[in-house]
UniProtKB/TrEMBL annotation, chain A:
<dbReference type="GO" id="GO:0016887">
    <property type="term" value="F:ATP hydrolysis activity"/>
</dbReference>
<dbReference type="InterPro" id="IPR003439">
    <property type="entry name" value="ABC_transporter-like_ATP-bd"/>
</dbReference>
<dbReference type="InterPro" id="IPR027417">
    <property type="entry name" value="P-loop_NTPase"/>
</dbReference>
<dbReference type="Pfam" id="PF00664">
    <property type="entry name" value="ABC_membrane"/>
</dbReference>
<feature type="transmembrane region" description="Helical">
    <location>
        <begin position="248"/>
        <end position="273"/>
    </location>
</feature>
<keyword id="KW-1133">Transmembrane helix</keyword>
<feature type="domain" description="ABC transporter">
    <location>
        <begin position="333"/>
        <end position="573"/>
    </location>
</feature>
<dbReference type="GO" id="GO:0005524">
    <property type="term" value="F:ATP binding"/>
</dbReference>
<protein>
    <submittedName>
        <fullName>Putative ABC transport system ATP-binding protein</fullName>
    </submittedName>
</protein>
From TrEMBL, chain B:
<protein>
    <submittedName>
        <fullName>ATP-binding cassette subfamily C protein</fullName>
    </submittedName>
</protein>
<dbReference type="GO" id="GO:0015421">
    <property type="term" value="F:ABC-type oligopeptide transporter activity"/>
</dbReference>
<feature type="domain" description="ABC transmembrane type-1">
    <location>
        <begin position="42"/>
        <end position="324"/>
    </location>
</feature>
<dbReference type="GO" id="GO:0005886">
    <property type="term" value="C:plasma membrane"/>
</dbReference>
<dbReference type="InterPro" id="IPR003593">
    <property type="entry name" value="AAA+_ATPase"/>
</dbReference>
<dbReference type="InterPro" id="IPR003439">
    <property type="entry name" value="ABC_transporter-like_ATP-bd"/>
</dbReference>
<feature type="transmembrane region" description="Helical">
    <location>
        <begin position="160"/>
        <end position="177"/>
    </location>
</feature>
<keyword id="KW-1133">Transmembrane helix</keyword>
<dbReference type="InterPro" id="IPR027417">
    <property type="entry name" value="P-loop_NTPase"/>
</dbReference>
């Protein structure tokens, strides 16, 4: 763990400084303008003091005109400096964020896979919230630099007016903020607890609404409402306790600020009476004493943001730094003959010396008694596993798969994942993305072959029906059949399917099995079906049975049914 | 995934959303809640006003100090000023803290009651309405809208209240110093008003577009990352990367655009500040010149006005938050004001547990008829299996039989009594529907099960689990019945979730069970175990099973074959096999024994 953080610090620092360095021109402009803005903010109480001193107290019209002109200039500079300074800062931050997000997405989508332990959800968090938080470093630095400028201007002004008084204010304000920091963790702990309790209650509510059909099915909606009421009430109690702490915090802030002001006013008033300060200087000192707390608080806040940015940048850097899982060194193109896929002596996880051959035009079924064997086999076939991690070889037309470019291999051997993911867009886009326009005519036939015609026909938009939310609005069976249609439409020379009809009812499954067999019947199209569905297996040329990771039987579906009771038990349900 | 989506349209095309309350209705609801806490409301207002008033003492005292210096007062006068400052600081502190507590108490209490009411109404929505609305709108109400309003109550609300009071009372303080100084301060108001009038109409659509672009960006990101395996196998990496980059760039451009727009707004506010401050100083100059006020009063006025910059800035910038909180509140009020479903006062008792459907027809929202003239009588304790292809109407028929879909024609009777006469509460207690959607509730396993039977003790829960053969794996869980399951907790397999659903049926102990489970992913051995569990859970109960697998039909007392929304065949498994009709074809091809080309063609 400790080693981790020391080795990770360098890439984190490199990532963060890299972001700043790449945008240095824009950021320099932003920092200059934002510092100017803070200086102007500090100058507002000074301007009030000066105006009262030289104009209001004296009745000098010319002085008033000069002061008014000065205030107009001050506010104009203040407004313009903030406007353009913050714009440049936001542009720089947003561009870096965009680049970071795209870089993370590119890494996560790398064809070679990523050797990262992150789950999909975690990767998503890195690409969204961590990237965003990392980019905040730009904001933290900008705000910090501007705050320092504000503090410096205030400090110089105060010291110019009166050195002991100025020093008192400059030491008093940090002491005050420090005192508030002592109770701040308690406050954030309590309000964190309140947020968590409220989030829990909201989570319960969304959970109940998500499972509304289930609740209603068993007549439990009343009981669910009762349970939510209790959770909501618990959250309320925690929120009320947090509110008390907030109240105390605000009281302490107010009293410390008020007492500090009283002290500064007392001393400055005393000095003014004794003639050490003018009235205007008195006003300026009091005004600056109140103002200076703001940039100092901002500095503390910048520290917090920078810490958050560092934490997130660590995760981003880790993801960007992960090595690809597999190699894509192969340069050889496959000879464009009829495809033959051969697995020889495969040993991986549970698999031991597995040989599988799919000849051109052949349709082969694989029945795995243990579902883990099916997963292992598919991982090998889709080249998700580095060659060094398994024994044996995969060849495609006698060329070792490792020597074929990944994209080329996947064009020839298409493995359709079992869990169908559809993407946002309409059905036809989902089925044809990445296909040459000439091939799109076959879509309707593929949909029909996958017994998915009703999915398209049941909706007024037909093929233009919009898929949202990863196809969650479709039933599992509908999604699965569209996935099958998509795989058929891609028309790869070798198609590998993994339990493509598990969520489909028996009658529809039969239609899909027939459609699949007919669609893939061309002599240059081979199909490998990893399944235990008799409807699908009954239409294969040959079935290979894997038991305890080894090939135990090979034969036709009907022969195996007749001769192998274990096979019968595995597939006849 | 749903009862209805097999045949009903899913997208926004025919979505009917839940009502959104108008401003009047929203206020009435809010006021009704606030009125029930009248004492707290009055106390909160009084303390908040006092707190804001106490904060006015300091600038006033500084003005007094300036006057003392101006007329060369004594050290004792300075001490008086310091003394008043100290007292006012303590008073302001106590009052400010107290008002924060009171405000948070009131806001959080009203919020809690509101969210409870919204969830209760949502859960009690008539089934047909809930199905039509879809889970998206329901979820956004109880989730996002509640979060937005909570955020407003916890942070924006107190900020708005205290800023508003500060602005109003500081304005009053200006007038108290001298009415002409007050008028001078008011000169800033038109500036802010113009600024808001320029900003607000443009802001809402601008922010809405930005939010939309962000949602689109996260859609593609979520979609591509979740489907990364699919992306790789189709070699779509670069397509998806480009799409992500395009959406991300679009969102970035909008964010920058929105920010630029906001900076222009802020510049306009700076202009209003400048006008106000100059007016106070110039008017002060004239008044001092005319000996109408002291220099100290002008100082106090200028300091008052300077103090307004932050609360005024806060007020104009939280306008968006207030607007979106208002929109969410209106959506919550829309749900909270829904009438409660009417339950019949004294429904007649069904004679037995038989279920009779007569002449049932159904269509979804004016679509094609998905059920036509279906009549089916299920005797008490009889098990009937529905068989047919997707779109044949099985799931709709199951929904009608369970009373969650109201058919457009025909009737459903339980023990001779119409379901509508029995009322939703009674029907849901007597007929259990296990839909294709298997949901595991977040919380402990025991909590999940007790949703079906709140008073069941652990022994009864264990017995129910044993009935569906789930006791073995439950015992093996890290904390047994107390293991946390559901989202972000111990994951259950699809088969385990289905067993859990069956155990809930056992605990709910209904007269009638309608089973419409999706086929198990666990392979045929797992599916067989689930079938046994379903048989055990439904034993002795009137049962309709939507048969996704034909072995389920084989074990039923009667098989009903459906096609195009009609019943085409019915009888026992053996009788239908012997009859050699549609069921025979399905059975032969399903077992894979016969060449499909010979018998399975349509």
């Amino acid at each position: 763990m400790r080693d981790d953080s020391t080795t990770a610090r360098r890439p984190v620092a490199a990532l963060l400084t890299g972001m700043i360095w790449r945008r240095r021109g824009r950021l320099a402009v932003s920092w200059l303008l934002m510092s100017l803005h803070q200086a102007c903010e500090a100058a507002v109480p000074v301007a009030i003091g000066v105006t009262i001193d030289v104009a209001v107290a004296t009745g000098d019209w010319t002085a008033l005109a000069w002061c008014a002109a000065g205030i107009i200039v001050l506010f104009t500079v203040l407004a313009l400096a903030w406007r353009f300074g913050s714009q440049q800062g936001v542009i720089a931050q947003q561009r870096e964020l965009h680049d970071l997000r795209v870089a993370v997405a590119r890494r996560a989508l790398d064809p070679r896979g990523t050797d990262s332990s992150l789950s999909t959800g975690e990767t998503l968090t890195v690409a969204t919230s961590d990237a965003e938080k990392s980019s905040l470093i730009l904001r933290a630095v900008s705000m910090g630099i501007a705050a320092v400028a504000g503090i410096v201007v205030s400090a110089v002004t105060l010291l110019l007016i009166d050195v002991p008084l100025g020093l008192g204010v400059l030491l008093g304000v940090p002491l005050l903020l420090g005192a508030l920091q002592l109770i701040a963790p308690r406050l954030s702990r309590r309000s964190g607890a309140a947020q968590a309790a409220t989030a829990t209650a909201t989570g319960l509510a969304t959970d109940f609404v998500t499972g509304l059909r289930t609740l209603r099915g068993i007549g439990a909606t009343g009981r669910a409402a009762e349970r939510y009421r209790r959770a909501s009430d618990d959250a309320l109690q925690v929120s009320l306790r947090a509110a008390s702490v907030t109240g105390v915090y605000q009281a302490v802030t107010t009293v410390l600020g008020g007492l500090f002001l009283a002290a500064v006013a007392g001393v400055a008033g005393w000095f003014a009476l004794s003639g050490r300060l003018t009235v205007g200087e008195l006003i300026t000192v009091v005004g600056l004493a109140q103002f200076i707390a703001e940039p100092m608080r901002t500095l503390g806040y910048c520290g917090q943001i920078a810490a958050v940015a560092r934490g997130s940048a660590k995760r981003v850097a880790e993801l960007l730094g992960t090595a690809p899982l597999t190699r894509d060194a192969g340069e050889r193109s496959r000879q464009d003959t009829t495809p033959r896929l051969t697995l020889t002596g495969i040993g991986y996880r549970g698999l031991t010396e597995v040989d599988v051959t799919v000849a051109p035009g052949e349709s082969v079924g694989v029945v795995c008694h243990d579902p883990a064997d099916a997963d292992a086999l598919l991982a090998i076939l889709s080249r998700r596993v580095p060659e060094s991690d398994y024994l044996g070889t995969v060849t495609c037309d006698d060329v070792p798969a490792a020597e074929i470019r990944l994209a080329e291999y996947r064009r020839v051997v298409h493995v359709e994942p079992h869990d169908t993911t559809l993407f946002e867009g309409d059905i036809s886009e989902n089925l044809t993305a990445g296909m040459p326009a000439s091939a799109r005519a076959g879509i309707e036939a593929a949909v029909a072959a996958a017994a998915a015609t009703d999915v398209v026909a049941s909706h007024p938009d037909g093929m233009n029906r919009h898929i949202s939310d990863r196809g969650r609005s479709l039933s599992g069976g509908q999604r699965q059949r569209l996935g099958l249609a998509r795989a058929l439409a891609a028309d790869p020379p070798i198609l590998v399917l993994h339990d493509p009809t598990t969520a489909v009812d028996a009658a529809t499954e039969e239609l899909a099995a027939q459609g699949l067999a007919a669609f893939r019947s061309a002599p240059d199209r081979s199909t490998l079906l990893v399944t235990s569905s008799p409807a699908l297996l009954g239409k294969t040329d040959r079935v290979i049975v894997l038991e305890s990771g080894r090939v135990t039987r090979t034969g036709s579906h009907t022969d195996l049914l007749d001769s192998d009771p274990a096979y019968r038990k595995a597939v006849l349900r | 995934m749903s009862l209805a989506t097999e045949s009903v349209t899913d997208s926004s095309v025919t979505r009917q959303l839940l009502p959104v309350a108008g401003p009047g209705e929203t206020w009435r609801l809010l006021w009704g809640e606030l009125r029930s806490h009248r004492a707290a409301l009055v106390a909160t207002l009084v303390v908040s006003v006092l707190a804001a008033s106490a904060a006015l003492v300091a600038p006033w005292m500084l003005g007094v100090l300036v006057d003392e210096v101006d007329r060369a007062g004594t050290g004792a006068d300075v001490w008086t000023v310091v003394g008043v400052l100290v007292v006012s600081a303590v008073a302001a502190a106590v009052l400010t803290g107290w008002s924060a507590v009171l405000l948070a108490r009131l806001g959080n209490t009203v919020l809690a009651r509101l969210r409870e009411r919204v969830l209760e109404k949502t859960l009690r929505l008539p089934t047909a309405t809930a199905e039509r609305v879809g889970s998206g709108d329901l979820l956004s109400r109880v989730g996002d809208d509640v979060s937005v309003v909570s955020e407003a109550v916890i942070t924006t609300g107190p900020q708005v209240v205290s800023s508003l009071l500060t602005v109003v009372l500081t304005g009053a303080g200006l007038f108290a110093l001298d009415w002409r100084l007050g008028v001078a301060g008011l000169l800033a108001v038109p500036g802010y008003a113009l600024s808001l009038r320029w900003y607000l109409p443009k802001a809402a659509p601008f922010y809405a577009r930005e939010r939309e672009a962000m949602a689109e960006r996260s859609h593609v990101l979520v979609g591509s990352l979740h489907g990364v395996e699919t992306v790789r196998s189709y070699r779509w990496e670069s397509t998806h990367e480009e799409l992500i980059a395009r959406r991300s760039a679009a969102a970035m451009d909008l964010t920058v655009g929105v920010f630029k727009f906001f900076t222009r707004f802020a510049s306009r506010n700076n202009r209003a500040e400048c006008i106000g401050l100059l007016a106070v100083l110039v008017v002060g100059f004239l008044l001092v010149d005319a000996d109408a006020v002291t220099v100290g009063a002008v100082t106090a006025a200028a300091l008052y006005f300077h103090r307004l910059f932050n609360p005024l800035g806060a007020l104009v910038t939280v306008f968006d938050d207030i607007q979106s909180a208002g929109a969410s509140l209106a959506r919550l009020a829309g749900v909270a004001s829904l009438p409660d479903p009417v339950e019949p006062a004294d429904p007649p008792a069904p004679a037995d547990t038989g279920l009779t459907l007569t002449g049932v027809a159904h269509r979804y929202d004016g679509g094609p008829e998905v059920l036509s003239d279906v009549s089916l009588s299920v005797a008490p304790g009889e098990h009937v299996a529905l068989v047919g292809t997707s779109g044949a109407g099985k799931t709709t028929l199951a929904g009608v039989a369970a009373g969650v879909i109201e058919p457009v024609a025909g009737s459903v009777r339980l023990g001779g009594v119409e379901l509508s006469t029995l009322g939703d509460a009674v029907v849901r207690g007597r007929i259990t529907l296990l839909s294709q959607e298997v949901h595991v509730f977040t919380g402990s396993l025991a909590d999940d099960l007790r949703l079906a039977a709140p008073d069941a003790d652990d022994a009864r829960l264990t017995a129910a689990l044993a009935t569906v053969s789930a006791d073995g794996w439950v015992r093996a869980l890290p904390d047994g019945l107390d293991t946390k399951v559901g989202e972000h907790a111990h994951p259950l397999t699809a088969a385990q979730s289905q067993q859990l659903a069956l155990a809930r049926v056992v605990l709910a102990d209904p007269d009638v069970v309608i089973l419409d489970e999706a086929t198990a992913e666990a392979g045929s051995a797992g599916a067989r175990r689930l079938e046994e569990a379903a048989a055990a859970a439904t034993e002795g109960r009137t049962t309709i099973i939507v048969a996704h697998r034909l072995t389920q039909a084989q074990q039923a007392d009667r098989v009903v074959v459906m096609e195009h929304g009609r019943i085409v065949e019915q009888g026992s498994h053996t009788a239908l096999l012997a009859a050699g009709g549609r069921y025979r074809q399905l059975w032969d091809s399903w077992t894979g024994l016969t060449d499909a080309g010979a018998t399975g063609g349509r």
